[in-house]
Amino acid sequence: MAKKSKRGSGPRPGSNRAERVAARKERQLAAMAPPPRPFAGLAAECDLVALRAFVASATATPALIEPGAAEPTLTSAVPGDTPAPAAARADGTRNDIVLATILPGAVRAIVRDAANGPEGVVAVQTDPDPDDAAGEIADALRWASHAASGDEYEPGDTEVVLTDVLVADADLDLVVHDDFAWWFPPGSDVPPEIADMLARANDSIMPTARLTPKSGTGAPWWVDAGERAHLRWVRPESEDGLMTALARLHAAGRLTLGEGSRFAGSFRTHGLLVPVFDLDNELHHEEWYPGLDQFDEWLTEALSVTADLTSSERRSRDGIRGRQVTLR
């Protein structure tokens, strides 16, 4: 007896099965596509990615397109630690703004009294984590710029684009903290209900430093994790280009920051690739600058090479990819 032909046995157009197959293919294609770069177009892209992905306690004064209040006139008086009562802002004048890693309760933004009037603090790490990170931060910056002290954050009704809020070519003026004392204005008391949470948060912070290579490329962050230190270097290049350059360096024995370092792998986050090195934590973070700058020079050279990979470089690339993970 002849076998039944399978011709035409696929899902019929318009059927439920066809819709399910099409939806599955779309999910597969989406999973294969590189993750979006929510902070693309900003000079501070690499640091914004670091603040969202792995930096514990840091603040920055962002350069907003909307002008703020004029700087206060300097006097010979020594200011006290206790903030003065919030001054009334002139109509249309925005609050001072601080960009931070995380706030108590992982909320999006707050406005509080500060020495020069209301101050908005916007966090880049929140719970729940938004699908549109750039849009959520932009909306929080919009709200915090004009809300009154003590108001509760309310999302806006219209979409806000981050590049319409932040000056695109401005870097972040970063301050790395060893605790979360900045959660409260100087001289203020810690509310008893969050004292325990503050203590636990402070205990979780590991020594951290933002390094600055001679080239100024990317955002290298050092952290002492205990038995070893690590360096995570958020890079702005395309993933394929950077992966190819890393493979060339690995095959040439140059994937290193010098003695006491070891390439640990890489991870993808917010559309960028982040090489990671394990480091000897007996060395102070500033002692890694020679190795950091040497590696940066080698990497810049490798990025400029356009020739096809050799067989050994392809094996290096496959090995590096095999250890790569994606954070989001």
The chain-level structural class is: alpha+beta
SSE string, helices as H and strands as E: HHEEEEHEHEEEHEEHHE
End-to-end Cα distance, whole Å, is 54 Å
> What helical percentage do the residues reach?
25-40%
Q: Would you identify the regions where 5 or more consecutive residues have pLDDT less than 50?
A: 83-88
State the major sheet.
6 strands, mixed
CA-based gyration radius: 24 Å
The fraction of residues in strands falls at 15-25%
Shape: globular
Number of distinct helices: 7
Compute the average pLDDT. 88
Number of strands: 11
Strand order of the largest sheet: 6-7-8-10-9-11
Can I get a quick summary?
Helix content is 28%, strand content 18%. The protein has 7 helices and 11 strands. It has helices at residues 16-32, 45-53, 133-144, 192-204, 239-251, 289-304, 311-322; strands at residues 58-61, 96-100, 109-114, 117-123, 173-176, 208-210, 219-224, 229-234, 261-269, 272-279, 325-326.
Keywords:
globular; 328 residues; 18% strand; six-stranded mixed beta sheet
Characterization of the model:
With 328 residues, the protein is an alpha+beta fold. Helix content is 28%, strand content 18%. The chain contains seven helices and eleven strands. It has a six-stranded mixed beta sheet with strand order 6-7-8-10-9-11. It has a five-stranded mixed beta sheet with strand order 3-4-2-1-5, covered by helices on one side. Strand 6 and strand 7 (219-224) form a beta hairpin. The longest helix is centred in the first third of the chain and has 17 residues, at 16-32.
